[in-house]
């Protein structure tokens, strides 16, 4: 008799769109060759979206990748790019992870964007197709994904709601926590894909329904989230407001073969 406990189990459902969270989910989706969308609303995805909509090119690198490449100065010279400051509250830096620091970025600028969550997830996605989604670009991201599925009908989409590190609110506290703002962002993309006739997993469906019911109070919800309250307490309320703006850009951020994210109309 076959022991059912030893039989392989496929956690990804048979549908076009699934929502998961965390770094391991990125790795599993990449092994499946899914199209991966990283959603890290506060603040990696929002910052990248602002830079892309203004015509900049963005390379997302994890801290480990930057060190492997020789450090921040070497990376800046190698790619001819600005590297965001280590700390969001570095007032002397030209660019930081704060979305508000990128509102003056110019077309043609090159930016190296790193973060504890979003950039690490982009790195973990390896060579599969990767987009970065936000509330600002939810409809544009869904439109780009629909085009990809039309040309590659056998592929599926995994929307990754990025987690947050507990260390951001408590020094020395290990592990990650679910970030509701990222489920809202992923859910909004899923909702638009459902409108285009794409099938959703139950996780994607729940996220989409929550996002649809929240469109009139996104800033309120982000401001009341753990991540939002943390940023507001640190003096970055403007970043929360920028992250809560829905569909204010018509371009999606797609990773190109050279690793840079560029606008996809």
Helix content: 25-40%
CATH topology call: putative 2-phosphosulfolactate phosphatase
Give the class from helix and strand content and strand pairing: alpha/beta
User: What's the total number of strands?
Assistant: 11
Per CATH, the class reads Alpha Beta
- Integer count of domains: 1
Order of strands across the main sheet = 1-7-2-6-10-11-3-5-4
- CATH homologous superfamily - what is it? ComB-like
Termini gap? 55 Å
- Gyration radius (Cα, Å) is 18 Å
General form: globular
Q: Which segments are poorly predicted (pLDDT under 50) over 5 or more consecutive residues? A: none
The CATH level-2 architecture is identified as Alpha-Beta Complex
The fraction of residues in strands falls at 15-25%
